[in-house]
């Protein structure tokens, strides 16, 4: 687990390692904020390559390597299963009746009737809604002198 010092060597080793065993390769990126180091690590449990830098110039190269590796990792070909030999007739398929969904019901008032939206949002006591006091109204405490 020795760090590779040259970026081009690390880049070619990383792409070669991924090309050899794409199912086993893990790629991790770690930034250590305390020291300002960026550590890149690729491993396939047999071979491990690492690169460490604190230079901001490497960030553009790092971004291009990330883009290249992530496109390779995400461009997996998915096998499409062959179509079924016999097709069902659309008239034999069951028809499922889906009920229409209504909106959210209005909140119920204290007397059991639906409250109007204006009455539900405007408080009656002229200030804050019931149960939610802003913590005001009292005298402000004074701080002691040091």
Automatic annotation (TrEMBL):
Extent of Gly residues compositional bias: 128-137
Boundaries of every SRP9 domain copy: 4-73
Origin: domain of life: Eukaryota
Residues making up the signal peptide according to the UniProt record: none
Pfam family for this entry, one: SRP9-21
Biased composition annotated in UniProt, kind: Polar residues: 114-127
Matches recorded under InterPro entries: Signal_recog_particle_SRP9/14, SRP9-like, SRP9_dom
GO cellular component: signal recognition particle, endoplasmic reticulum targeting
GO MF term set: 7S RNA binding
Region (Disordered): 78-146
Entry protein name: SRP9 domain-containing protein
Source organism of the structure: Kwoniella newhampshirensis
Origin organism lineage: Eukaryota, Fungi, Dikarya, Basidiomycota, Agaricomycotina
